[in-house]
Each structure stands twice: as structure tokens, then as C-alpha cells.
Amino acid sequence: MRILILTKSIICEKQLQEQLQRLDHEVFVSSSLLISSQQFLLTRLIDYFQAIIFGETVMDKEVTKILSMIDQKDHLLIRKAETVLDKVDREVWKHKGIQGWVYCDSGIEAVREQLSTLEKEFVPTETENSFTREKGSLTMMQIKKTEGPKGLHLQVNSCAFGNTEKRLVDALINKKGQLCSREELCEILWNSKPTNSKLSQLSSLIKRIKGRFIKLGIHEEIIHTTWGKGYMLTNKFNDYFTDIDEEIEPIKELQQ
């Protein structure tokens, strides 16, 4: 699960961040997204994350403001606090959109059980920004309808590629439109020379990736095959795909 922690003090979230990472979650921590001038970026990035945790250093009025800016039905919204709130205060926050709590002194077991309970109760709405389940894990496919010839914009890192498929796509992206040879791909994917078996696997991977594009409604050629040599991304790739890392990168303190 991808988790965004919003905080005024990144160091205060070190323990929680490490606990979540030990539980195999992808965690990003940011303080700059709370700055008013950066909140437009927050609204662009928010659908990349399934869960949002508001640190105890974030003021109540700031949490309330952000809750009003986002689609609450599509995210797990969690507040971190120093001490357990009374029932009345928890009900007030529940009405505002907060679905669960973690505490500064929570051990990893408590964090694990709280997240497990929330995940079981959480049912995202089936909108254009939605979570899909594949192979028992949660991934997010972010699709935004836009005007103009580019139509769909998909976040590469959050499409439901298998692990090897994603590494193959990343290798092609890194070539920046140039041919990536079969030898290079075999080395990258399997640390192997291009045997007949590996070349067959490579061909099957390419076919599966092309099939995924078709399921997404993309029928133009995204990956071009140069027979006997290798593969390359066509210019059409940039018409449909953007990488969320390009948007996250300028935020220096956003950490995994």
C-alpha cells in the first residue's frame, strides 16, 4: 500500500515511517505539501496514495482544510496523535472524514492491527481514480480524462504491471526512444545472455504488456519491435503516460 504522511516535522515521523516500511508499505513523508503554495501539487498527487496519515504536528485547521480538498471516499484517512482522544472528539473527527488513529507510542503490532482493520473496512468507490486488486495486492491505476489528442494519462509507476513487466518498461523508458537490444534486456531482467528460452520469455513479456495497453483502451503502437534486434518505445508512449516520479521529484523532503 502507498502511504503519504503529511507532517510539519519529518523527523517526528521516523519511527512510524520505519514501522510501516517493515510492514511492506511504500511510505512517503512530506512537509512541503502543507505549504499553501504547494497545495495545488498535493491535489495532483493525492490519488497516487491509498492512505494518508496526518502527523500530530499538523494543526487541526490544516487537516480540516485538506480533508475538504480531497475525495474522502477514495482514501484511508488516518490521524496521528500523542494520546488517545475521548469518544466525543473521535466522533467529531469521524464526521470530518478521519477513519482511524495511530499514536506516537504505538508499537509495530498496534500499527499493523489498526491498518489491517481499516483496510478490511475500506471500500473505495469505482471512479476514474480507483484502486484495483491484482494477485492479492493493492495497486492504483490513475486515469484522468483530459481534453485534446492525448486523451488518457496513466501513471506508469502505478499501472498494474507485473514486476518483470515493470522492469522491462522501465528499461525501455531509460533508453528515451532509442532501441533497447535483446541482449541488454536479458541482462537487465535475468542477468543472463539471450538464450532461446530467455528470448521466448522476452517475447511473451512484450505481448503481455501490449495486451495491457489494449485493455486500457490504447490501440496505437506503443512498443515497436525491430525483429531480431530489440524493442523501443514510440512517441505515442508520451501521449498516454506520465511518470508520477516527475511530479514527486521536486519535493526534496518527500522520502521513501
Automatic annotation (TrEMBL):
Organism classification, top ranks?
Bacteria, Bacillati, Bacillota, Bacilli, Lactobacillales
Q: Which InterPro entries match?
A: OmpR/PhoB-type_DNA-bd, Sig_transdc_resp-reg_C-effctor, WH-like_DNA-bd_sf
Q: Mind telling me which SUPFAM superfamilies this protein's record contains?
A: C-terminal effector domain of the bipartite response regulators (SSF46894)
Where is the OmpR/PhoB-type domain positioned along the sequence?
156-233
UniProt protein name: Helix-turn-helix domain-containing protein
What's the short name of a Pfam family annotated to this entry? Trans_reg_C
Supply the alphabetized keyword list. DNA-binding, Transcription, Transcription regulation
